[in-house]
Design goal:
alpha/beta, five-stranded mixed β-sheet, ubiquitin-protein transferase activity, membrane
């Protein structure tokens, strides 16, 4: 996780550096920066019209170039970056078609999108039944391109689909309908206005729309009104002022007032007939036009920093960063978490199929965690006790977003979002570099898993999937809490059937080995143990010589030796009779199905493995160090060697003990069961207290 965060932060630094390199290259080739001002007089008439269309100002009555350039100057200063952005946007609109227009199917569809949304502006062309549309197909396409750059959505309503609704609303002829929120409150009422002009022209219709939208903005004509509005208002802490010599504000400014309804109040100050200019200088307005954001922390002059153009997209990005809503923060976190998850495609080493499978898993996990994490955040934001914390958070955010670094980040965000191919190519190049360095870093410790081919990894994935479907997963399985025997557990039947590995081996998590009990075997007395060992060796040698002379048949019991007989459901070993020397001997033989286990026990006795270092003698073994739920024995049935003092032993849930090294190798090979009784090594087995107590009494006797 931290490695992916580091690589993602490194990628953002690369993007920031690359943007500065692009600026340096442009300055070297043209000698201009994006923030450099442009004199409108030096531009052509076509470029001036492009600037006015992007700002949303009408120029239908202006024929001379001088008048058009003056209108550009009155609406705001022009920079090289805004000029480039306006020309690029015009080319994109020319290449695009009018496919973004919504076709309403009926009354319900119209109500849901237009009247019930209440947070946008709509322009709908109503086509009466058996009538022609008010605008032709080509003129409607031009209208869609003109208004869509200001966030105005368009649609067509054909009365042939729902004639009764048209009669109810009074749409007897083809017309244009515009919907605008009526109040400045969030989710306010929506009013529908019908175009009744005599001239059916694109520019005339656009001027009709902008005039109605501009009525929503509070317009000031006198200094007394400005002083009153400049005072701090707790209900509207943020106010966006436009000081200009215009009849009405630009369309992008009016459209933003609808978009930020309830968050930021937009005010237009008409200074054409302003009498008291000293009131402007007192509040910090030294030139006109000026876009000023008034905050509780102070005022901010918009347009003086990098990327702050007089366009809808640029000012929308700035205002969203200053006063974001919850949806903005959620989208931002969603983008970051998905960029972080896609880093797994390059960090993961191995087959290509493995990379994509890990990527899909990471995408699902991260997005699920993100959605679940946002639920308590949304609940906490509704609490009134957190209003103070919410206010301080926004204050810190405004302090950070009004810095020069924040303006550079916003400019880079606008640049890369308008060039998605460049963003994706740089992300891919960064990912390939991460993949290369990861291969170099893991070159010395490359595992077998990383060297698998696609088919081999798919085969292992299929084995895991089928095992997950057909067999219980040990890591997720709860130990039985009842006192029933293992025969009553239905899961044991599946485990027992799967163990022969006829066609599939069940996959078991190896973490349970760490929780198995381990202890060190100790003798009761060191001196007595040495004497006992010498006596045991002499008896063993004499018995061995007698066996060579007599050569008894296999399986004979002529010698008096003590073997462990399996009692208590053929699982608990107990000591046998006392031999001639009066000593007690006890060995644990593996009781299994068939004759193989009895042969192993005879072989263990024949090879003198029953006694060694006197640990097999219960009289000199410190059984207090032995776990109470483990069966007492002296031999490891995996290596067929007796336990030696100071050796580390490990026990299984069934109660049998072995050498730690032997049983770990046994379990790591995929044999997740006891070598003696075949009980699953990851399942807890209920031991009876009566059995343990009877075993202890037998040993003490």
């Amino acid at each position: 996780m931290w490695l992916k965060l580091f690589f993602l932060l490194l990628y953002f630094i690369v993007l920031f550096t690359l943007a500065r390199i692009f600026e340096a290259v442009v300055w070297y080739e043209t000698g201009m920066f994006a923030t450099q001002l442009v004199d409108p007089v030096t531009l052509s008439y076509k470029k001036l019209k492009t600037i006015l269309e992007c700002r949303g100002l009408g120029y239908s009555g202006l024929v001379e170039k001088k008048d058009v350039s003056e209108l550009v100057e009155k609406s705001g200063e022009l920079t090289q970056g805004e000029l480039y952005s306006a020309i690029k946007k015009q080319k994109e609109q020319t290449e695009a078609d009018g496919s973004s227009t919504t076709h309403f199917s009926g009354e319900v569809h119209f109500y849901e999108l237009v009247e019930d949304t209440k947070d946008g502006i709509w322009l709908v062309q109503v086509i009466a039944q058996d009538r022609e549309a008010l605008l032709s197909q080509s003129n409607w396409g031009k209208m869609v391109q003109k208004v869509s750059q200001f966030g105005i959505r368009t649609g067509t309503f054909n009365c042939s689909n729902d004639y009764r609704s048209c009669i109810k609303r009074g749409w007897q002829r083809s017309t244009l309908i515009m919907s605008v929120p009526q109040t400045s409150a969030s989710k306010g009422k929506v009013m529908l206005k019908e175009y009744k002009g005599s001239r059916v022209e694109t520019e005339q219709i656009f001027r009709w729309m902008t005039s109605h939208v501009a009525h929503r903005i509070k317009t000031l004509h006198h200094s007394e009104q400005l002083v009153e509005e400049w005072r701090s208002d707790p209900a509207h802490p943020l106010k966006m002022f436009l000081f200009a010599r215009l009849a009405q504000p630009p369309a992008f400014f009016s459209s933003l007032s609808v978009k930020f309804t309830g968050r930021i109040e937009f005010i237009f100050v008409d200074v054409r007939r302003w009498g008291n200019y000293s009131s402007l200088s007192e509040i910090g307005v030294t030139r006109s036009p000026a876009y000023i954001l008034k905050m509780p922390e102070g005022i901010y002059h918009y347009g003086n920093s990098t990327g702050e153009f007089l366009s809808l997209a640029a000012m929308d990005t700035f205002l969203r960063s200053v006063q974001p809503e919850v949806n903005d923060l959620f989208v931002f976190s969603l983008v970051l978490i998905n960029l972080l998850a896609w880093m797994d495609l390059f960090i993961t080493q191995g087959a290509t199929v493995k990379r994509f499978v890990v990527l899909i898993r990471t995408l699902g996990t991260y997005n699920s965690i993100l959605l679940v994490s946002w639920l308590p955040v949304l609940a906490l934001l509704q609490l009134p006790y957190l209003d103070l914390l919410h206010g301080y958070s926004l204050k810190l955010l405004r302090y950070a977003d009004t810095t020069t670094l924040a303006s550079l980040v916003r400019a880079d965000w606008t640049f890369y979002s308008s060039h998605p191919a460049l963003f994706l190519s740089t992300y891919l190049a960064h990912g390939l570099l991460v993949d290369y360095f990861e291969k170099k870093r893991r070159c010395g410790t490359r595992s077998q898993e990383d060297s698998r081919t696609n088919l081999e990894w798919l085969g292992s994935l299929w084995d895991w999937y089928t095992s997950y479907l057909l067999h219980p997963i040990a890591s997720l399985q709860q130990f039985p809490s009842d006192h029933s025997e293992w025969e009553d557990d239905p899961n044991f039947l599946f485990e027992h059937l799967a163990f022969p590995d006829l066609w599939l081996r069940p996959l078991v998590n190896m973490d349970y080995i760490k929780t198995l009990p381990t202890w060190r075997l100790r003798a009761a007395g060191q001196s007595g143990s040495e004497a006992c060992c010498e006596k045991a060796d002499e008896e063993t040698r004499s018995q061995h010589s007698d066996e060579e002379r007599k050569e008894p048949p296999h399986g004979s019991s002529s010698h008096k030796r003590s073997l462990c007989s399996v009692n208590f459901n053929s699982q608990l070993p107990a000591c046998g009779d006392v031999d001639a020397s009066g000593g007690r001997q006890c060995a644990c033989a593996a009781e299994s199905s068939g004759n193989g286990s009895s042969l192993s026990a005879d072989r263990a006795v024949k090879d003198n493995c029953v006694v060694s270092d006197c640990v097999s003698n219960h009289q000199h073994c410190d059984w207090s160090m032995w776990p109470c739920d483990m069966l007492q024995c002296s031999e490891c049935v995996v290596c067929l060697e007796t336990f030696v003092s100071e050796e580390v032993l490990m026990g299984l849930p069934c109660g049998h003990a072995f050498h730690q090294q032997c049983i770990v190798v046994w379990l790591a090979a995929g044999r997740h069961c006891c070598p003696v009784c075949r009980w699953p090594s990851y399942k807890k087995k209920q031991q009876r207290a009566a059995q343990s107590s009877s075993t202890d009494n037998t040993v003490q006797d």
